Amino acid sequence: MLRIGGLPVAGRPRDPDLEQRLLATAWSLLTTNGYDALTLTQVAAQAGAHRTDVYRRWRSKVRLVADVLDTYLPPVPDPDSGTLLGDLRAFAQDLAGAWDEPWNDGLVGFLADLRGDAEAERTFRSLVARRSQPLVDAIARAVRRGEIVEVPELPFVGNLLEGPLMHRRMFGGEPLTSAELDVVTDSVHRLLTAAPVKP
After folding, report:
1. Greatest C-alpha distance within the chain
2. pTM of the full predicted structure?
3. DSSP per-residue codes, 77-104
4. The domain 2-60: what is its CATH number?
5. Domain locations in the chain as residue ranges
6. What does the buried/exposed string (b/e) look like for 90-121 if buried means 16 or more CB atoms within 10 Å of the residue's CB?
7. Is the predicted pLDDT of residue 196 greater than 70, yes or no?
8. Which fold has domain 73-194?
9. Where does the pLDDT of residue 14 fall: very low under 50, low under 70, confident under 90, or very high at 90 and above?
């Protein structure tokens, strides 16, 4: 048994450097080969660690990947263009860039695994909420400017913007064109400014 300060401590303390190395390795493998091909054993081998080092920290692949995304996905910028339409376009462009990343090809498998792991799902939902904050802020600014009379259902607005991107990536295998993205954002803008949007 390990002793710290003369007191017995169960197990070994976590090594933050090793944990960051494992996360970085998993991110590299995820972005190169996709979710479906990633294994915990492969992460350990590529990181020069023992397989038990990975399993001690993450009981499943979906938990590891949820933490990897939480660590490495960059924040969504909040440009504040001065208009709701400009903000929606900026937000949609960032979403489009994220959906164009190769690791999204395995998203169906990741989301399926996510439903069976409450801890991984909490991590991922927290990540989604943070990445949605620029949209929340854009709507709040539009309300203050008088562009929107009534605050809409914010999750539904996000679904309207991201739904076409997700569908095209998962079922078409290609991103939306710039013109198609403009159609999406212009349509959402018209809905928001014409009347309250409710699911």
Report:
1. 70
2. 0.79
3. P----SSHHHHHHHHHHHHHHHHTSGGG
4. 1.10.10.60
5. 2-60, 73-194
6. bbbbbbbebbeeebbbbbebbeebbeebeebb
7. no
8. Tetracycline Repressor; domain 2 (1.10.357)
9. low
